[in-house]
Amino acid sequence: MKASQFFISTLKEAPADAEVVSHKLMMRAGMIKRLGAGIYNYMPMGLRVIRKVEAIIRDEMNRAGAVELLMPVVQPAELWQETGRFDKMGPELMRVKDRHDRDFVIQPTSEEVVTDIARQELRSYKQLPKNFYHIQTKFRDERRPRFGVMRGREFTMKDAYSFDRDEAGATKSYQAMFAAYKRIFDRFGLEYRAVAADTGAIGGDLSHEFQVIAETGEDAIVYCPTSDYAANIELAEALPLLAERAAPGQTLAKAPTPGKSTCADVAALLGLPLAQTVKSLVLATDELNEAGDIVATTVWLLLVRGDHELNEVKAGKVEGLKNGFRFATIAEIEEHFGCKPGYLGPIGLKKPVKIVADRTVARMADWVCGANEVDAHLTGVNWGRDLPEPDVVADIRNVVEGDPSPDGQGVLAIQRGIEVGHVFFLGTKYSKAMNATFLDETGKPALMQMGCYGIGVTRILGAAIEQNHDERGIIWPASIAPFQVAICPIGYDRSAEVKAAADALHQELLDAGVDVILDDRGERPGAMFADWELIGVPQRVVISDRGLKEGALEVQGRREAEASKVAPAEVGAFVKARLSA
Amino acid sequence: MKASQFFISTLKEAPADAEVVSHKLMMRAGMIKRLGAGIYNYMPMGLRVIRKVEAIIRDEMNRAGAVELLMPVVQPAELWQETGRFDKMGPELMRVKDRHDRDFVIQPTSEEVVTDIARQELRSYKQLPKNFYHIQTKFRDERRPRFGVMRGREFTMKDAYSFDRDEAGATKSYQAMFAAYKRIFDRFGLEYRAVAADTGAIGGDLSHEFQVIAETGEDAIVYCPTSDYAANIELAEALPLLAERAAPGQTLAKAPTPGKSTCADVAALLGLPLAQTVKSLVLATDELNEAGDIVATTVWLLLVRGDHELNEVKAGKVEGLKNGFRFATIAEIEEHFGCKPGYLGPIGLKKPVKIVADRTVARMADWVCGANEVDAHLTGVNWGRDLPEPDVVADIRNVVEGDPSPDGQGVLAIQRGIEVGHVFFLGTKYSKAMNATFLDETGKPALMQMGCYGIGVTRILGAAIEQNHDERGIIWPASIAPFQVAICPIGYDRSAEVKAAADALHQELLDAGVDVILDDRGERPGAMFADWELIGVPQRVVISDRGLKEGALEVQGRREAEASKVAPAEVGAFVKARLSA
To answer: B225, B345 in Cβ contact below 8 A?
Structure first.
């Protein structure tokens, strides 16, 4: 490919609305162009990366036995009503009416449509297992689209759906997809982790996120450097940090803490370690009658150590909180605690409150909490002596660096990651809602066991850049770079020798199947080099009269500080060897 | 590919709503599956064809110097308001509001978005010419979707847009696309014609439709078998069929024609050739004031020979009718002609009427027309003697088979075709509306000259089948067949020899880059053969114990009545030779 036959459009400055580095660099490198909020044109340079990402995904999905089809972007609402998602989903589901006033959605995913296909096409156990996938345009009307392709509204996703006879089969399908995803992410050349994720109401442990490691990632991922353990922060189990509860050593006392409403302030004032304090969080659950009116409300006090954070996903697994909870109102808090927030605690309640203690809190002795009195805290608090044992003891906090690994193999570390893939066992959630059955060996109808497996194709670009960039621009892994090699001739128009050498190398690399671009735009060397560094092409070859005369052309990898000098006759072989390394 | 790892789903009967053969066969062969009116899932077998069509298009577009990008499916209404299409287009433009109540459209084409890209990115004459294309999902909310992928609502289209400095450049871009389209359609292996088409208000002669020839096609295409002339029926020029007007030979007379209101009936009653009669068609044009009220109406009488048909596109080019016309109301007709339709003519008018005679009618003598009196016609009518010369003489009729070719090289023939591609010079229509300018050599802003070039990707499938099928199913051209070869082993599970031979041939063909499927489903031979004939795979190899023993395996082309017997060791080479032939 010659640059003059392609389209290159780089910018010195990123537009002001680009907040994160990948967004800035994709705009500057001319990979995307904003059309509207969260809606981008994929410009030729960016589309080449997308196509390479898609090709790797397609190759490995096919290898894993999945079969590609293509489901529509615009889908009839009827199917979405069958599963209830048409009504349950918020405005992120883009709804549209046709000329006959019939409802449609612009697909954010395709569980409904693929289940509809399966219930019609997969009628016998002999046709199972089957895994259908497509790579298609999706739309989610995000409340606040941002970060370029990282949280856009229109995006490209690969979504696969497996159908099995039973859970054992579904587990095998899941594992095949898990293995395919590892191959896919290996081939992308990105540093990533497959982390266990919450399965929600489905249960079981068949849910993994594929997270691309990046300091700028929105997700916290937890792993054990000395074992295989890895989970996202929602799921990672926090073991109790104390082996057992110590005997009380202090008497219960009230300490004045004027204006100190946070654990950190109280600990500092009292000269105690933060780990001696306990944080109070007040939730509420409502019981509704059939008409949907609230007939009873329960107030809950959740206690976590002062240096820990509540994990709402874990809280949502506590018996009594499973069907949803909310934060209590100020009125409810004052009614039950006789005090405004900032000084709350489990002792001296005005009305009964359900007390849930984190595992670590349940083993603490001589701790500090609010006195249910403004500007006062209690010290030397002890379970059993000063208050009853908690109603519930549960893991309700986020793990922190240094916590023991749940597998007993070391301590936990935390990294930031960007979720770009998710494999998930769905069970019969959709097959039940849509009555997707097959005839089993005995001729009886049985519900299909399903799994779903997504990869955010366009998001991969953002994640790859967040992980791989420097002050000069993007650093693409070779497998997904828009071009693998940029030939930069100096004086292509002026020097017959330079032109001949550049054209010959271009042809030699093309013939070898290398994805090469010859920059024949006639830019000055500085601007030309800066463009290819910004765009992030892995290898650059500079062809100049001087280099040819001296028998030493410059080949420089994008991450290298210095160029290698290579004899002109050997440049082709040198570059090919680098790319196959 | 082994069939067990793919997905094959054939039907004995087509669903009742499938009206045309391509729709029926695509449903029966499991290529598409209906999701809603005009909305289809592309099943694995159909998607393979789509991908092959896309690959050929992409290859030739790139070769012609066009650059691929990807524009969004959901597009902000603002751009569509700039060109006025948001308001002007009817309900076939699918409009949608986002969560903030902002207007969007689901793209039917992308002129607005690509022009927006061009006006931002192409700032200098040095960047021109440039041709951007994408292959993307489109949506048109058709009033009556039908014929499967031939007139669906959601479909895949390749649309390209060229930007040039001037008309000479745009003409070159147009010609490059025209040549690329010919290569594309040649590679599809379809019989087609590039026919000149109407350019509407743009003018000039840079508009061609690529029509796939099929008896079932909706379009009439006109060509000259002894020259290059080809045009669609809207455009094809009708020359006058008479060299000059003969002198009057008859006197004007009134003939009673009770109940005979068509030319054919009148000719039969009077014992005259149909070509002696003249048909009257009454149109009206309204003059509006600034408030949009009608301030004046002109009634027009268009005259074509009794055996000819009015061509409304041509009529729309007559001075005075260019800004739109309508058919006259019965009241207007009675007011001007003093008679109801069926017996109208240009003689004895009650009020002034503009008379437009087709070129042939203007040269007729002694003709027959309505007498403006119920149940009566005039015979022996002659221009100049019985009525004034016509106000306008113009080509306003469709050509018919046997008409002289406008290029003087023979006579015209007519075929049916399916429009699957269109190349069109847009001029400054969009660049003017959206102010897409570039700086020319003198540093002054100038409007870009545009062209647009579409191919209906999914429609190609329907057109290919309409052209190539028989009573057993589809007959795909090899270049776009879902598979090129089907290996049909008889007793794959039972016979080790059959399995070994089938597996070996499968591998040999795969290694040679042949797109082959090995049918390991264990179907009985009859059902297996019927499936591959229905699906339309070009070559079939049957591997049986008997064939192996006798040293003669059966290779049969989809269009062949008999199989060729080929020695097992030579089957691979035989098939490869056939495919490369």
So the answer is: no
Angle between helices B167-188 and B44-63 (to 10 degrees): 140
Interface-testing mutation among B68, B119, B134, with chain A (most A C-beta atoms within 10 A)? B68
Q: Is B435 on the interface with A (CB under 8 A)?
A: no
**Model-level pTM?**
0.92
In CATH terms, the fold of domain B3-237+414-465 is BirA Bifunctional Protein; domain 2 (3.30.930)
Residues of A in contact with B91 (CB under 8 A): 99
Question: How do strand B74-76 and strand B103-106 relate by DSSP bridges?
Answer: antiparallel
Give the nearest partner residue to A44 out of B35, B40, B69, using CB atoms. Answer: B69
- In chain A, domain spans: 3-237+414-465, 253-394, 483-580
Q: Is pLDDT of B16 > 90?
A: no
Helices (H), B291-434: 312-315, 330-337, 359-362, 429-433
Q: Does B71 touch chain A (CB under 8 A)?
A: yes
ipTM of the complex: 0.91
Average pLDDT, chain A: 95
Summarised one tens digit per residue, pLDDT across range B509-539 is: 999 999 999 999 999 999 999 999 999 999 9
CATH for B483-580 (3.40.720.10, 3.30.70.260, 3.40.50.300, 3.40.50.800): 3.40.50.800
Phi-psi map region of B574: left, alpha, beta (phi>0 left; psi -120 to 50 alpha): alpha
List of residues 6+ apart from A482 with CB closer than 8 A:
A31, A45, A46, A48, A49, A52, A476, A535, A536, A537
What CATH fold (topology level) applies to the domain A253-394?
A: YbaK protein (3.90.960)
Contacts of A69 in chain B (CB under 8 A): 7, 41-44, 47
**Distance in Å, alpha carbon of B220 to nearest chain A alpha carbon:** 30
> Taking residues B164-191, what's their average pLDDT?
97
Give the residue from B11, B22, B27 showing the smallest Cα distance to B475.
B22
Structure token pair of residue B24? 């029926």
Closest-CA residue to A109 (of A350, A373, A364, A424)? A424
Chain B segment 50-69 residues within 8 A of A by beta carbon are 50, 65, 67-69
| Single-letter amino acid, residue A334 | E
CB within 8 Å: B73 and A6: no
**Cβ-nearest to A75 among B35, B65, B73:** B35
CB-count burial class (<10 Å; 0-12, 13-18, 19+) for A433 = middle
Of A7, A121, A141, the CB nearest to B99: A141
Q: How far is B495 from chain A (nearest CA, A)?
A: 22
